[in-house]
Every structure is written in C-alpha cells, then in structure tokens.
Write a structure and sequence with these properties.
Blueprint: H1 5-14, H2 25-50, H3 54-60, H4 65-84, H5 89-111, H6 127-145, H7 147-156
Helix pairs in contact: 2-4, 2-6, 3-4, 4-5, 5-6
Length: 157
C-alpha cells in the first residue's frame, strides 16, 4: 500500500500532530531501536533475578526479598516479549515505563543511586540506575511512537 503526504497528515492529526511510526521510516527505525534497547537491557537482568544472584539479593533485601525479585523478573519477561511484537509493542512499552518508574523510585527512596556490591567493598557507580533511566526513556519513546495501536483498540471497544 502506498501512502501519501495526505495520509501522513491525517495520521498525525489523529495523533495530536505528533509523529508516529506511520510518519515515515525514521520514526519506525527509532521505535525499533527503542524496542531492542529496552528488550536487551531488561532481558540481561532476568538471569540475575531468576537465579537470585548475590547482586539481586543486595538490591531486593529491603524491597521484599526473593518474592519481589521473582515478581519483577516475571513482569520484565512479559514486557520483553510484548515489546518485541509489533502489535503488542505499545503495551510492552507502557509496562516497561511503569516498571522503570518503580525501579527509579526504589533507587531514590531505598536502594540508593549507586547499588552496593555484594561483598560490600564498593558500588556499581550508578550503572543500574542509569540503565533504568535509559529503559524509561526508550520505552516512553516507543509508547509515544506506537500509541495509535493502543488508541485503535480503545476505539474498537
């Protein structure tokens, strides 16, 4: 199907004038970059959470322990799957936004920006906090660019 500038203008008007993945190839590429970055960062933390690695024990010791780590891992696994499927990417992105808001709040209020190492000799220099911020920004971008998918479902309901 060939789209015209009129189609793009109609799509943008229906989206509040902001770009979506329908606005052109650069926006679709930006969405996929955000989806992949989010999935990779969340995906690589799953091993630590599911195996209850020492780093996970330190992070979750004041946040509910092992059950909280497992609940977080399951939620993040669902988000990773959802965000990599185009039809569900917006829902994965919204889930990632919610999870990262919780993670960032936990860092600020409980854990600290720099997470202590399991042996107590240092910290991560804020790496995990920084990755949470990156995932928040990337997933918010994906949700914004793919918002028409969610809006379409709401219109059908």
């Amino acid at each position: 199907m060939t789209t015209t500038s009129q189609d793009h203008n109609t799509n943008n008007a229906a989206s509040g004038g902001l770009p979506t993945i329908d606005s052109g190839k650069p926006f679709a590429i930006a969405s996929w970059v955000g989806q992949i970055v989010t999935a990779v960062i969340l995906g690589q933390t799953l091993f630590f959470k599911f195996t209850n690695a020492p780093e996970t024990q330190v992070i979750f010791q004041d946040l509910g322990g092992r059950p909280a780590a497992l609940a977080s891992a399951v939620a993040e696994l669902v988000v990773v799957v959802l965000i990599l499927v185009p039809k569900t990417a917006v829902f994965g992105a919204l889930g990632a936004v919610m999870i990262m808001l919780g993670a960032i709040a936990s860092h600020i209020a409980v854990i600290g920006i720099a997470v202590p190492t399991p042996d107590g000799t240092g910290d991560d220099g804020g790496l995990l906090f920084g990755m949470a911020v990156v995932v928040l920004l990337m997933s918010a971008m994906v949700a914004a660019l793919r918002r028409n998918a969610a809006l379409g479902l709401l219109r059908e309901a």
